[in-house]
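Workshop exercise sheet. Pairs work together: one partner reads the sequence aloud, the other fills in the structure field after running the prediction. Swap roles for the next sheet.
Pair: D.N. / O.F.
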Amino acid sequence: MQTNRNKIGRNRATAMAAIGVAALSAGSVTLPSAASAATTGISGPLKIITWVNPPAVKALTTIDSEFMKKYPSVKVQLETAANDQAGYATLLSTSVDSGTADIVTDVNSIQPLPLHATRAELTSTELWAESNAYLPLNSYPWIHDFTKGALSLESYNGKIYGVLSGQYQRVVFYNKADFAKYHLSVPTTYNQFLTLLSTLKADHVTPLWLGAGGGAPFYTTDFITQPLMSAVWEPHVPGHNLTTDLQTGSVKWTNPDMVQVFKEEAAIGKYLEPGYAGVSWEGMPGAFAGNKAPMLLDGSWDLATVHTDNPKLQVGSFPLPGSNVAADNQPILQPDLNFEILRKAHNVPAALAWLKFFASKPIYEQYVDITGISPSETGGTYTSFAAGVLGKWLGKGIALDTIMPAPTPNLGFYDSTTEWGVLQESVIAGSKTPAEAAKLTQSSWKK
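Structure field:
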């Protein structure tokens, strides 16, 4: 029941963040001296494809220019298309089938595959991994600069097929000036969070902002339900992986921990802005920047817009606290752009050189700072606005893919992105009790 990887949240992480790219851009980096083709053996055209994703395109354009300074006999061609079925989806499929690109990009992770999946249930990325359409990268030392978690998402049958460029993080963003004004401390537990919320409401302040209108009821799931499932339920299941256990049936949606999630969801929902279910998701960062609430439930992709709308705003962040065990409260990590080399690529040597160049610390740090994403490499120093806001949480958290399985074609009514989001709104509104919501979810579960 994860939000479709190309749904609104992804589009915001790309298109809307463009507004604040200038504020996030890093300066140029010092490169090694240019190497000639005679020295490197690298030459010819190198084609990379992606969709119209302004922060990433800006970063890739910069990196391509610097790569060509190091490898003057290589001409990098970055081709983009609109992020829709007729645009990039078609370009990607055609490129994979015909080998007309060397490096392709997408936001679909290879893992975790649905248990007992049929081909109809696999994403195109998963199908291409299963069909050996990508070049394995295990033997190249630079691939191991990325975290084990990042590599596991891009692996199939022990082969690493891609580079996860980074992840966005779902947390609570807060206005530091408001916290100082009302003498508030950053909460680390559920009880502390409820006390903070009630304190603000007693001062006639709307504590939390969330826009679930305009076709985004699943934002209630993304920013409240899933973080609470991660904090309240996942620590108590075998292997700490709800995705696997829900699919095997070793846990059920009627579990008391899930009922507790619904109870906490209802309690927290009382502190959202009035009519949040009809408030457009597109206005969320602007509302927070305009100080309509001291806290925003959102993903780090919107920080660029917040910063552009109000450059003076001092922003902090913390994981949504669902547990009274502070260590169980973690950000949710949402994978973003992947890079894969096609097995049919015309210029594999140049493609490998480009990925190695991308993975090098100064270049990768530059990519993270321009895009405002959280790093998937180990180590590094980052200076973006997002990095400052996330602070100690930068790059840390629980992988989204461990929390709940993605939808499949044989969905039950509530086993769908939209309807499950609407159910959460019913729990918050009080028209469904937590126990009723748990039973409804289990009754339509078809894994």
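Discussion prompt: The chain has two domains: 8-166+336-373, 168-333+400-443. What would you look at next?
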